[in-house]
Model the fold of this input.
Amino acid sequence: MNTQRFWFRFRKNRLAVVGIFVLLAIIALAVAAPILAPRDPARIDLDQREQSPSGAHWFGTDRLGRDVFARIVWGAQVSLGVSLLAVSLGSGIGILLGALAGYAGGALDALIARAIDLMLALPTFFLLVAIQALFPPNLINVIVIIGITSWMAIARIVRGQFLLLKQRDFVTAARASGVQPTRIIFRHILPNVSSQIIVFFTLGLADAVLVESALSFLGLGVPPYQASWGNMLNDGQIGILSGAWWVAFFPGLLILLTALSINLVGDGLQESLFK
Amino acid sequence: MLRYILGRLLQAIPLLFVVTLTAFAILHLAPGDPAALLYGTDITADQRAQIRAAWGLDDPIPVQYVKWLGNFLRGDLGRSFSDGRPVLQVIVERIPATLQLTLTGLLIAIVLGLSIGTLAALRANSFIGYISTLLSTFFYSLPNFWLALLLILIFSVWLQILPSAGIESPRGSTGIADRLAHLAMPAFVISLREMGRLIRFTRASLLDVLNQDYIRTARSKGLRERQVALRHAFRNALIPIITLLGLSLPQIASSSIVVETVFAWPGIGRLIIESAFQRNYPVLMGEIVMIGLLVIAGNLIADICYAFVDPRIRYGDSL
Done:
């Protein structure tokens, strides 16, 4: 589908357009962190503990007197970055396995298809939690663990498309003229699956944001000394009972806005690309 | 039908084997000595070596796995490292709390999800349809731990009408009303994500069916719209929805970890975090087996429901 037609259809989905703008605003927040919040997000100020939102501290301060707004802005880098890398890893695995299964067929396909079904049936969050509790928390672990438990949706869709596309004439022609299988997979067939991949990548990103923050909330994700939205919620838990609602409210709101806007964009993409 | 169920159960055995083998390998490759974690500096190096030997931690990992598997097949899951009680007992006493939470949550999700989803499909191009779709995405994007904290803030801290933690009052349960008051917030929180999925899926599935020829036939026979939707369309739309429900069980079990943590609910979800931090291998393995069985049961129930909804499966043709 050409770009113009795509934009024409995408624009008709008002919610998706709103989603794009919210998402861009959040990304801008993360990128412009040094300008927006020159205050050090880790700076402790015990005289300023649990201050409610005011002109000096827009979103208030937490129980160590750290500025919640600064932590949100800097935490956006961590939360978005971790999710993006995790989904990239997951999509990479998914595309590779899906393409391999769909193109090769036979026993390999049967094996990969079973693995997909198995992983989909498992409560992966249980595994995430158990594994994360066993290993010391660091950023790489979180990215890898979310990546290797989130490849199934893409693998399934890519496999399905490859099963269909490999029987088309252009593939037969390529094979007959002696093109290498890896080149057929990546250069001839894969580009035809790109719309599906984009949609599932987007929807996977929303999930990853939620999973990352849930893990950090449990103290099992991003290391506690680093500001991330999930970690801030973990900190804010205690404040809730004493009435310091702002410590947990704002980071949670950002998680919701991010996941919601990504999901809306994903739905919009799905609609304008496939219907 | 019985044959079909038995076949399904037989297929589950290799699955359970693979899952336990992988889990065992990961657990024992992780750093951290359970004896050191549990007793810290309270014991000497000698005593620690004794404890490790008693727990069988000095054997090579494959030997440990074979021993574990042998005991498991004889129905013995071992004893918890932390208090020496049988693992089966430790886990079984936590199950009712988790079941109560997840099944209530699932029920809320099914009832509201199917109703809103059906409404969204029948009024697809109206304001109601639009709002339902947005609502589904909203529920699906809502971080449940955050919602849990907000609800505690509103209902426990500000309004003080619902308890913020636990399964019953610390002084002991004062009857069903007390239980329900403790259950309300956690069950609602745990239901939302599945509700979001169900609304969207029911809508899509029903819209799909409503465009079929036999629906047009039913309408042209002059049947009332309500009858067409509920008698003809809904039943067929249920088939893919049941698949989703089979997948819902592990999902909602996953949410239980977070929800149980926030609401201090004494269930399996919290047990898994506690035992992972303690490197309590026997309890962790027991939990993994239990989760495996849960998943198998979930899929089996979905399969049986299929057979009830769709007679073609029951009589073994077509599939």
Summary: The longest helix of chain B spans residues 225-262. The mean pLDDT of chain B is 83.
